[in-house]
Amino acid sequence: MSSMMKKMTCRALVVSLLALSFQTANAGMIGADQAAAAGAAQVDRGMVLSYLSRAETAAQLQAQGIDPAMAQERVAAMTDQEVRTLAQDMQTAPAGALSTAGWLAVIVVAAAVWYFAFRK
To answer: Which of 32, 80, 85, 119 could form a disulfide with 41 if both were Cys (CB 3.0 to 4.6 A apart)?
Structure first.
């Protein structure tokens, strides 16, 4: 019986080894663009988190009912592409400046004031 048990155990081990897929490790060099992209993602994430840690930003978030710690957790959970897009938007957004529609409204109001103030 002992011999039969050993044979069954050996057969089970052989079948399990053959059933498992063997994966080999593959190492290679990464390109400079991949290394730079990983570094840039960390820089962008740090920039967004530094904006969120400012007192003015935290006050504005709390005024809108958003917990600043929760906002930082959400940024930490974002993918690198999402953080890159957010960082680019933050860098290119006009800080307190008027948009094109804003300038157009200012021009129309100024023209209306000038027309009604100086017409004869």
So the answer is: 80
